Amino acid sequence: MALRHAVLAALLDGEYSGYQLAKVFDVGVANFWYAAPQQLYGELAKLERDGLITGRQVIQRHRPNKRLFTLTGAGVAELERFASAPAKPLVLRDDLAVKVHAVDHVDPEPVLAQLAERASTAAAKLALYERTLRELRQDTDEETFLRDGERVGPYLTCLAGCRLERTVHDWCVDTARVLRQRARTGSHP
Amino acid sequence: MALRHAVLAALLDGEYSGYQLAKVFDVGVANFWYAAPQQLYGELAKLERDGLITGRQVIQRHRPNKRLFTLTGAGVAELERFASAPAKPLVLRDDLAVKVHAVDHVDPEPVLAQLAERASTAAAKLALYERTLRELRQDTDEETFLRDGERVGPYLTCLAGCRLERTVHDWCVDTARVLRQRARTGSHP
DNA sequence: ATAGGCATGTAAGCAGTTACATGATTTA
DNA sequence: TAAATCATGTAACTGCTTACATGCCTAT
């Protein structure tokens, strides 16, 4: 199973509707797991069938009703079991890296454009994650929060997100610089 | 399509058999794309059917025969088309990050063990990638190689691998330190 | 008015994973 | 003698992506 546990972990933070989870998983925060909305609705239905979560209907005025989901005891137990099972290696798949690998044999212009775009989305994500960190730790400084805070899990994964996006951003910028310089001097057919 | 282009890009480096590609894709070097052997044999068959690669049989003594694959003109054209199409966002999925997200609600011991393991595999990959970089640039220094080298694509993606593994490694070490300290002082039920 | 946000799903198809299957040769 | 390396596949299953479908409310 896969998405399953990411959803359970997300529900540790409180009640969520499918729509709300979709937004969280769209950015990929909180879980290092991307998922499309349709996938979430499907997974939530399965999780409820299996008794790992329960949904309660919330009637709303002026907007569609929604269902908020909470972890059950069985859900928490399943998370516990998952956490102590051996971790699968991280899955990374990147189109852009494949393109850079091939850059000596194809037109570098579109690749440069894509590197610039990736750099700017990484910068945007970084800013978002840094805002999230500030919200999580409130007035406390980071060191104190990590030592005494009650719930540091989401903070730690968000830190991972920051580092990752910074790495991605810097790599894109540096790689683009190399390719642009080569295009200028142009001594490679 | 997905694996497809990663395989085509890998074949820019020369002829490969399914078995050889499997080793490359198992580590994930060269392409930022992991793939299991079975997947590769399947994909190679499809690519040959579609005329993007051609295989030639190599008869061997003392070991099984193999088939080496090369890009065709159509294959290179397909790569060119792929490189200029908009890049899909990078896909990242990580069990371990999900576990860290949940670490305040589950037993941290097994998570610590998994962080240590991840840190050491990241260090091993880093060492491997650094060796690869040295092989690629031979005697030249990095700056010169990136300016004047003929084929920098694989070098640039390998640099990305280095940065990524370093980021992963450091995050695991730092996260483990935070969690160990919390376990010692133990003021959080 | 139109775009965007809220809110939930179904269906079909493709990609990726896990398990199974085989067999010779080299190294420890 | 056992384990690792070379070498190639098939089959079943699960999970993920893409496309489709609906409809109200709010803000510009």
TrEMBL record, chains A, B:
Keywords attached to this entry: Coiled coil
Coiled coil ranges: 112-139
Presence of keyword Flavoprotein: no
InterPro entries in the cross-refs: Tscrpt_reg_PadR_C, Tscrpt_reg_PadR_N, WH-like_DNA-bd_sf, WH_DNA-bd_sf
Residues of the Transcription regulator PadR N-terminal domain: 7-80
Regions crossing the membrane: none
UniProt domain Transcription regulator PadR C-terminal: residue ranges: 92-179
Annotated Pfam families: PadR, Vir_act_alpha_C
PANTHER family: TRANSCRIPTIONAL REGULATOR YQJI, TRANSCRIPTIONAL REGULATORY PROTEIN
Name assigned to this protein: PadR family transcriptional regulator
Species the sequence originates in: Prauserella shujinwangii
UniProt lineage: Bacteria, Bacillati, Actinomycetota, Actinomycetes, Pseudonocardiales
